[in-house]
Design goal:
- One of its GO terms (cellular component) is plasma membrane.
- InterPro entries: DUF805.
- This is DUF805 domain-containing protein.
- Keywords: Membrane, Transmembrane, Transmembrane helix.
- The protein is mainly alpha-helical and 121 residues long.
- It has one domain.
- Helix content is 64%, strand content 0%.
- The chain starts with a helix and ends in a 9-residue tail after the last helix.
């Protein structure tokens, strides 16, 4: 688990190569839980939602949260590319997620497929 999460951060901008199922799912689960906890804690400390800006401090917290979200989103995007490569699919399959409902289900199926010998290794 810790190794998979460390690999997520080490390969933040690596859009080539592969990522196994565990290397994909552990960071996704950990980032989801950490993100929810951090947002809840920050909002509890601030006393209002992060999106509401009342002073300079709120602006800096809002800006930092958006910057962190961008970095994690970029890392998750590269992780999705590598996971698709591991199941021997081109990264263009990520666009299937744009199709409402069916695309999301199909992308989920692509993420749980087992590793296959592929051209990206």
């Amino acid at each position: 688990m810790a190794n998979a999460y460390r690999k997520f951060w080490d390969n933040l901008l690596n859009f080539s190569g592969t990522a196994t199922r565990s290397e994909y799912w552990w960071p996704v689960i950990i980032n989801y839980i950490l993100g929810g906890l951090l947002i809840a804690i920050i909002q509890m400390i601030m006393g209002h939602p992060i999106e509401d800006i009342y002073n300079w401090s709120d602006l800096s917290v809002n800006t930092m949260s958006k910057l962190i979200a961008l970095i994690v989103w970029l890392g998750t995007l590269s992780l999705k590319f590598r996971r698709l490569h591991d199941s021997d699919h081109t990264a263009w399959w990520i666009l299937i997620d744009l199709v409402p409902l069916i695309g999301t289900i199909w992308f989920f199926i692509l993420m749980v497929l087992p590793s296959r010998p592929n051209r990206w290794q």
